[in-house]
Specification:
five-stranded antiparallel beta sheet, mainly beta, 216 residues, 11 strands, six-stranded antiparallel beta sheet, globular
Length: 216
Amino acid sequence: MLNLTITKNLSMLLFYLFALSLFGQEKKNPDYKERFLLEDFESIKLTNQSFKVPANTHYLPDVRMSKNITSPDLISNTSLLIRISTEGKGIPVDLLFPKPYLIENYILEFEFYVYSNYANGDLFLYILDSNFQKHKIMIANLNYDGWKSFRIPIGNLVAQSDFIIGKANFIKLTGFQFNPTKKETKDKEDMIAIDDIFIIKRLKYKLPEPGITVFH
């Protein structure tokens, strides 16, 4: 009787440990989603020469890395700071990265940390999709003071499918646009800062694990 009780208890313990291991694997990667840091602006070099200002070739905004204006929600040493003087009021500003960001897998959302000093205008994101189509997607209206975070869902907005399964295509983050609206305070400069950029992505396909035979 004693041996039977010990065997029973041992079996229950082994089953409990097995169940815990399965639960741990399930919790490790729920829904195949991952939050990934795309850019923290700690080492990238951008200046006003990285900008294109289509409405006026004689004006360039002041662009530099800032150690003074960083998001309090992040562990950050630098952010990308854009200052638009009164001379540049009303002029759309494009910032194109020297090298676009190639992003794999399926992008669900972008997440941005953006500072504004009531820069009355809209901030947009430029994306090139897997069909080589350009997209201009609004991030936020910047008529506020301080830091805010924005999550921009793009899963259904841009083409992300592969032409051949298993040979991945990419979407590209190519840059930003600040499109100002008319200012009532003409002697005030606009200040915009962008801190860390995150993406929330998942696997494009649920492929079988190595060693598992798939029956059709």
